[in-house]
Design goal:
rod-shaped; 58% helix; four-stranded mixed β-sheet; 358 residues; 9 helices
Amino acid sequence: MPSKRMVELLRGDENERVEFKSTPDAVNMDDIIAFANSPVGGTILVGVTGKHVGGRQVGDVCGCDVSDGAKLKLMNKAAGCVPPVLIKVFVEKYGSLSCFRIEIASSNFRPHGTASGLYKIRVDGRIQPLHRDALLSMFLERESGVFVERFRAAARDLEGAIAKTSEDIITHVGMVVGELSGLDDSLEVIKQSAEIAEDASQNAASYIEEVLANTEQIMAELDNHQDSSVHLHQKMDALLNERSLEDPRIANAKAWLNRTIWMMMGIKDMKSARLDKKSREKVAIMFGELGSKEQVAALIDAAVSTFNSEEAQQYSRLVEKRPALPKHDIRPNSPNRSPDTHGSKLPARRRRSRKRSD
């Protein structure tokens, strides 16, 4: 059963959109490119001839070979056009007869030509060659269409790139804003740290000033204490002089010197010991045996400068009157002599022998 499209086309005659062909071999490249170059395209009915009915020419189905080989020949003819033409081939059943319906749309790549370089178009039910101006117009139209399509594609790509760039910019701006916020926080922390450091520095300066002031006050108090100590010593000396008392330091020094002299003289009972004239001379002699006259005088001077003792001054005068003795003069016949206090350097055996001889 034929399609509605087939029945509709058979009721009409050949025109700028329809053409009848009796066999597949009757279809050539001129027919294909003419419809492809047409602004509206067209249909070729293969296996159909024209007949006059009531003064009109209508289609009459005569049938044709609709094998795959015949269909392939038609497809090859369309593919041989320059550029190739896209066609659709349908097999129609009309009673016991079969035929082809070839649909050819207006091409977006026109103008199309044959392999020999011919360009044709279907106008008013006839095939006409394309003139130079029409051909140029088709080329311009095609190229402009290609250009427009390419421009649109480029515009779409550009829009996509712009959108992506905008997103990247927004993202980076957000990151920069975040970093600036972090930087503000860091600056605030640094500012607070600087203020803390400044406060600490001011506190340290105040503390140093306070320490210096306390130090000056302490120094002033030390000076006052020193002056007070001097005044106290002066008052004490005046009080001792007024009361005719001896300075405790001088008394202690004299006691120490007496104990030393008594020990050198071998006096064991310090309470009953008295330094008479003879004992003083003996002490002076014993001091002389300990060193030269100058050394003894230096010892006596030291004692005198320490406590200004009258007895030490007497010892000094006795030493000045006494001639210097050599260190090897032991004076064995001296009374109350102690062998260990004369500074003898003789061996113990010789000292014992000399004592027996005495």
